[in-house]
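STRUCTURE:
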């Protein structure tokens, strides 16, 4: 799957570039594509530097949590649910606890903590994989749920809006919450359909109903807060949980007589080993994405879509937000740049800017996640992972458009 996808990026980019040259007379497109190759290679190294730091830090703390028995306790708690969603993972396996920690960090918007924990979980699942180069069902489900943007507190979106002068930076909080829920549900249903998971099992239904009730109650509580109170709570809760996890690991480890410093160093060494193996996968994927973007393929797709929307007689205001949606699966930094560009061009509280902000908060950099998570364990055949993750992204985009027409239309 990844082989065909990667080759497809270059083929589509080449066709688009030759079309711009032969039909439009734009010979500079080839220079832009070559420049993009080098800039994406440089970006890959910059991303690696950040990953070296975060991986060594968080895998060090995770080693303390493992030695103290916290990960095992989480695994036992969630075994009834994951035994049905991931039947090939034994009850109580450490991967289940790590998956729980990863989802918790994602929900709270703690990206710096979520990625290292997720890579540790993927390595734990790889130990159970009978075919090391082919993604297992459990690994695919885990990756798709990660790529579906499980986010409860999108603090970064609030920050972007505040920087652009929004009077109410948290205006998109509830739209993002609804859209990201749609994305995650779509991802789960897509994987369940392909893998024939029994979601109607009483245990699964009980867990899902509990999550829905908890999420609904939280939405009702937060909906009554003022914008300033909601922004303050988002920032406080995110940072408090982040530092609270570290403190919990250290104190619990000390109570269990774990040599916390030695454990941290051992885990940090593992983080260094994981990080250094990621660079080839990042270079491969980011360079392919950069060439596709520089070829003008995304601009061409956007223009065609706008023409179709106008021809159908629909409201086309949302089309101005679609650059963020089209780029987000490929590049988080590019999507951020396009979001800010949309805010500058149309106004921070314009309809296209609100849709773009909601899309940014409810979708994920799918191909980056594929490259990092599967690259960390050497998986070369992703099977249905990319298709299910992209379906989740599509659901997030459509839900973002619909909910913004509902809230702001």
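SEQUENCE:
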């Amino acid at each position: 799957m990844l082989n065909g996808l990667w080759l497809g990026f270059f083929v589509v980019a080449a066709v688009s570039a030759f079309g711009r040259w032969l039909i439009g007379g734009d010979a500079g497109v080839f220079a832009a594509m070559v420049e993009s190759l080098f800039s994406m290679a440089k970006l890959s190294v910059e991303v690696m530097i950040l990953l070296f730091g975060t991986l060594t830090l968080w895998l060090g703390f995770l080693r303390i949590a493992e030695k103290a028995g916290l990960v095992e306790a989480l695994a036992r708690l969630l075994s009834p649910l994951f035994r049905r969603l991931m039947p090939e993972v034994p009850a109580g396996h450490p991967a289940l606890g790590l998956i729980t920690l990863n989802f918790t960090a994602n929900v709270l918007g703690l990206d710096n903590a979520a990625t290292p924990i997720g890579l540790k979980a993927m390595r734990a699942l790889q130990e159970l994989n009978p075919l090391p180069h082919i993604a297992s069902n459990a690994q695919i489900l885990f990756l798709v749920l990660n790529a579906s943007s499980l986010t409860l507190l999108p603090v970064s979106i609030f920050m972007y809006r505040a920087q652009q002068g929004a009077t109410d930076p948290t205006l998109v909080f509830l739209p993002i919450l609804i859209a990201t829920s749609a994305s995650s549900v779509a991802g789960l249903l897509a994987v369940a359909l392909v893998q024939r998971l029994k979601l109607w099992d009483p245990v699964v239904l009980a867990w899902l109903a509990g999550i829905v009730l908890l999420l609904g109650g939280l939405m009702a509580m937060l909906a009554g807060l003022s914008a300033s109170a909601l922004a303050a709570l988002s920032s406080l809760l995110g940072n408090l949980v982040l530092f609270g996890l570290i403190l919990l690991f250290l104190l619990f480890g000390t109570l269990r007589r774990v040599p916390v410093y030695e454990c941290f160093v051992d885990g940090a060494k593992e983080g260094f080993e994981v990080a250094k193996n990621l660079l080839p996968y990042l270079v491969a994927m980011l360079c392919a994405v950069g060439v596709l973007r520089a070829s003008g393929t995304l601009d061409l797709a956007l223009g065609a879509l706008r023409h179709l929307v106008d021809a159908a007689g629909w409201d086309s205001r949302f089309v101005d937000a679609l650059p963020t949606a089209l780029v987000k699966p490929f590049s988080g930094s590019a999507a951020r740049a396009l979001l800010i560009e949309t805010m500058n061009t149309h106004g921070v509280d314009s309809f296209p800017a609100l849709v773009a902000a909601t899309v940014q908060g409810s979708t994920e950099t799918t191909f980056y996640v594929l490259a990092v998570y599967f690259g960390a364990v050497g998986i070369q055949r992703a099977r249905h992972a990319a298709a299910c993750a992209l379906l989740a992204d599509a659901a997030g985009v459509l839900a973002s458009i619909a909910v913004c027409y509902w809230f702001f239309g």
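REMARK: Residues 2-408 form one domain.
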